[in-house]
Amino acid sequence: MLLATIPFLRFLSIVHAQRIVWHDEFNGTRLDPLKWTYDVGSLNVNNELEYYQPFNVWLNGAGQLVITARAEPAGPNGLFNYTSGRIHTQNLVAVQYGRVEARLKVPMVAGLWPAFWMQLRPRRHGWCALATVW
Questions:
Q1: Which pLDDT band holds residue 37 (cuts at 50, 70, 90)?
Q2: Do 85 and 56 touch, CB atoms closer than 8 A?
Q3: Residues 76-129: tens digit of each pLDDT
Q4: Is omega for the bond preceding 122 within 30 degrees of 0, making it cis?
Q5: List of long-range contacts for 65-69, beta carbons under 8 Å, 24+ apart
Q6: Is the pLDDT of residue 4 over 60?
Q7: In terms of pTM, does the model score above 0.90?
């Protein structure tokens, strides 16, 4: 059963001193592996019930990143009842100063917790101590 398929991220850019230093317009048919990495499996945090897999992250051909959540068995022995997608730029991009811009559309579906995070580097004190939620 499909829970949500929403064009999630339209563009992401990082601007420093009025100069774009990093961006992704999500053109094409696949994520750029020089900019993005997939998380696969369960992160075993926050009592998450989903299993992350790359198949749930795609570009729709209209310049939009889509992350899909589905009610379906996944993971070792079908232990998880839901699948979703999770991507990040960790170890691929780091910016000390600037402005980050993104245009997002998130679903209003009970039980989903869509998030767009920025995390400081280095992560010396755990993710929560250094994270800012948008």
A1: very high
A2: yes
A3: 888 999 999 999 888 888 777 777 778 888 877 777 777 777 766 655 555 555
A4: yes
A5: 65/7, 65/8, 65/9, 65/10, 65/26, 65/31, 66/5, 66/6, 66/7, 66/8, 67/6, 67/8, 67/114, 68/2, 68/4, 68/5, 69/3, 69/4, 69/109, 69/112
A6: no
A7: no
Gap between the Cα atoms of 65 and 30, Å rounded: 9
Q: Which residue has the tokens 């992401």?
A: 12
Cβ atoms of residues 37 and 93 within 8 Å: no
- Look up tokens 């000390």; give the residue: 96
Distance CA 59, CA 124 (A): 33
> What residue type is 128 in one-letter code?
C
